[in-house]
Amino acid sequence: MSKSRVTPLKAVTIPRLELTAAVVSTKTDSKAVLGYISNDAKRFHVFVANRVQYIRDRTDIIQWNYVQSESNPADYAARGLCVKELINNLMWWNGPKFLWKKLDNCGSSCEQRSILEDDPEVKKVSFVVTSKREVPFLDRLNYFSDWFRAKRATALCLRLQSKYKKTTETSEEKIDKKINVTFSPVTVSELEKAEKVIIKELQSKHYADEKRVLQTKENVLNKTSSLYKLDPFMDTDGIIKVRGRLSQANLNEASRHPVILPGKCHISELLICHYHQRVYPQGRGITLNEIRSAGYWIVGGSSMVAKHIRNCIVCKKSRGKTLDQKMSDLPKDRLEPSPPFTYCAVDYFGPFYVKVRRSEVKRYGALFTCLVSRAIHLEVAESMDTDSFLNAYRRFVGRRGPVRQLRSDRGTNFVGAKNELEICLKEMDQTKISNVMLKDNCDWINFKMNVPYASHMGGVWERQIRTVRNILSVILCQHGNQLDDDSLQTFMVEAESIVNSRPLTLDSINSIENLDPLTPNHLLTMKSKVVLPPPGNFQNNDLYSRKRWRRVQYLANVFWSRWKKEFLQSLQSRDKWIKPRRNVKIGDIVIVKDQNETRNHWKMGRVSEVICDEDGHVRKTKIMMSDSCLDKNGKRIKEFTYVERPIHSLIMLLEYKE
Predict the structure, then answer these.
(1) H or E element: which one contains 521?
(2) CA distances from 83 to 3, 76, 78, 95, 134 (A)
(3) Nearest to 377 by CA among 571, 479, 523, 487
(4) How remote is the C-alpha of 274 from its chain's centroid?
(5) What are phi and psi of 626, to 5 degrees?
(6) Residue 173 belongs to what H/E stretch?
(7) CB of 1 within 8 A of CB of 16?
(8) Alpha carbon distance 156, 151 (integer Å)
(9) Of the given ranges (17-21, 126-130, 632-636, 651-655), which has the lowest mean pLDDT?
(10) What CA–CA distance (Å, rounded) separates 59 from 33?
C-alpha cells in the first residue's frame, strides 16, 4: 500500500516538500528532486543542500529512479477514487508492476536528470571581470571631496609604496621579524611630499609643453601660452612656479613664488573649497587672496572662486539673492477699455493721527484705483478691520458704481471681507440674483488676491499710494498737524483731485501744438478741451449739443482713443526682469525670506507645487516647511506646513535634478 501526507498550511515549494518526503520515506517521483540528488556541480540554498546531503550520505544515487505518473499509487490518494474503483484497483492493493520485476527494469535512473537555470533553489553565481587597464592617478583623486583627505590618502599610498621597495632584507629575516600591525598617523613631511606629487602630476598633464620648454636652456615660453605673463620657472623639485615681480618682497617663499595650477580641474576646486572654508565663507576677493597667500596661483582663479561661491550653501544663506523671472504680460483687465472703476484695486495706507476731543486717534486711507484709467478714489477708514473696510467699500461703490473685479493683497481685512461676502451670498438665491445682475450687464464682484509677501505684484496701486503720500505730506505741511475727521476727509478729497488731474503721458507736455495731456479726470468729469475728429457716429458738433448724453459719449470716445494711442503704448516695455530664468521645479530646496525675521533665522523648505502663468513661467509656488512642536506627552515631533509664496521671496539652495 502507498502512504500520503498532507502538506502544511505554510506555503512551501514542491521540491522542498518532496525532499522532505524523500528524507522520511526515501521514495519519491519528482524529477526536480532526482536532479537535486544526482547533481554535483550546482550549489543550492541551505534548506535544499542539507537534505540532499542527508540523502546522499545514507543512500546511493543508483537506488533513486523515476516513477511514471500512471505507475504511482500515491496519485490515487491525492486525487481520490470512488469505492468501486478502489476495490478493483490492483495497483493500490498490489503496488506498481515494476516492483515485481528485476531491479534493472525499475523505472529510469536519475543520473541524467538536469536542473533548470532559473530554478529558485539554485544559488545565483555572479562573476566579477577585472581589466588590466590602469586608472590614472589624478582620476583616482576625483573620488575625494576634501583637499586634506586627498593628501592623506596619497601620503598613505606613498608610505606603502616605500615599504614595498625595501628589498634589502632576506625572506628568512622577514619571517623571524615580528610584523608591526600598529598604524602611525601621517606626519607633516609625508603630507608635504604627497602634495608635491599631486602638483607634479597635475602640471605634467595640463602644462606638458611648458614644462618641456622650461627644462631647456632657452627657458622662454611662447606668447600664446596661458603662463606667459606669469614669467614661470621650474624649481629643484620640478614644480612650475610664478617668478613674477615680488622676488625682493619681504614675504615667505610660498607667497613670493606661488605654485601654478590650472583653473578647470578637480584639484583646484578642492583647494578653493578648502581655503574658502578657512576664511569663514567670505567673498571672492578674500578667498582668492587667502589662496595666493598660501602659495597657489590658480589660472583663471577669480572666475573659479566666483563660481564656487555661487554654489556654496553657506554663502547662499548669508548673501544669496532672491529668485526672479521675466516680467509677466499685463492682464486683460488693464488693457480693455471699460467704464471707470469696473476693474479696480484697493489697498490701505497710513496711519494718520487726528484730534477727537482731547485724545488722538488713528485713521487710515483706503485707496481704490481704476486699473484702466489709473484714476483713484480715496476713503477714510477708522480701523484696519473687516467691518471698516466693508463700510469704505460700500461708500466707494455708492459713488463710483458697481465693481466687477477687485484686486488686493492678502491683508486680513481684505480676506475677511471676501469670506464675509461669500457667506452672505450662500444665504441668498444665487440663481435669481445672477439673473437680475445680468439684466444690468453686471456680475458679482470677483476678488483676486496676490500671494503673500508679493508687494511687487501690486505695483499698479503701490505706485498710486506713493503719489498720494507725497501730495498729503505737502498739504499737511501747509495746514499743520492739528487735524480732525472733517479736515482729514477734506485733505483726502484734495489729494484725490490732484492725483486724478495728473497727466498719464509726458510726450505732449512740452509741445504747444499738441493737445492737452491725457488725465484720469477726462473720463471721470468729462471736462476736456479736446477738439479732435470724432470717432464713430458722434460728430464734433456733439460737443456743444444740448443733449447731454451725446456730449458725454463723445468725450468718452475721445478719452479711449487717446488712451490707446498715448498711454497704452507706454506700457509696452519692461523696465526690469527682462530675461527669462529657470523655472522653479517641484523638489527644489529653497530658503523662504521672512521680513519679520533676521536672515539667519529664515527657514528652509521644499517646493511642493508650482503655479504656471499663461506664458509658461512660474512666479508663484507652494513651499513645504518643517517645524517642531511638543505633543501631549512632551515629546518633540515634526510637523509640516504649506505656505504660498512668490519666487521673489525664495533663495535657491539646491536645484532638483531628475
Answers:
(1) helix 521-524
(2) 18, 12, 15, 18, 79
(3) 523
(4) 27
(5) -100, 145
(6) helix 171-176
(7) no
(8) 9
(9) 126-130
(10) 14
Q: Which three cell numbers stand for residue 466?
A: 506713493
Confidence band of 110 (pLDDT split at 50, 70, 90):
very low
The strand ranges marked E within 182-230 are none
Specify the DSSP element, H or E, that contains 200.
helix 188-206
Local structure of 242: helix, strand or coil = strand
* pLDDT tens-place string over residues 60-71: 777 777 777 777
Contact 609, 586 (CB under 8 A): yes
Q: DSSP letters of 254-322?
A: HHHSPEEE-SSSHHHHHHHHHHHHHT-S--HHHHHHHHHHTTEEETTHHHHHHHHHHH-HHHHHHHPPP
pLDDT digits (tens, 9 = 90+) for 240-269: 999 888 888 888 889 999 999 999 899 999
Q: Residues near 322 by Cβ (< 8 Å), separated by ≥ 6?
A: 593, 647, 648, 649, 650, 651
The residue-averaged pLDDT of 117-136 equals: 69
Burial of 285 (0-12, 13-18, 19+ CB in 10 A): exposed
Per the CB < 8 A criterion, the answer to whether 272 and 284 are in contact is: no
Q: DSSP labels for 1-65?
A: -----PPPSS---HHHHHHHHHHHHS----HHHHHHHH-SS--B-HHHHHHHHHHHHHS-GGG-E
Report yes or no: 604 and 313 within 8 Å, Cβ to Cβ: no
- Model pTM score: 0.62
The three cell numbers of residue 196 are: 608635491
Q: What is the mean pLDDT of residues 520-545?
A: 54
Report pLDDT for 490: 82
pLDDT the model gives residue 652: 92
- With CA atoms as reference, report the closest residue to 42 among 109, 128, 127, 123: 123
Instruction: Using pLDDT thresholds of 50, 70 and 90, give the confidence band for residue 170.
Output: very low
C-alpha cell at 415: 480676506
With a CB cutoff of 8 Å and minimum separation 6, the contacts of 456 are 646, 648
For 496, the grid coordinates are 484725490
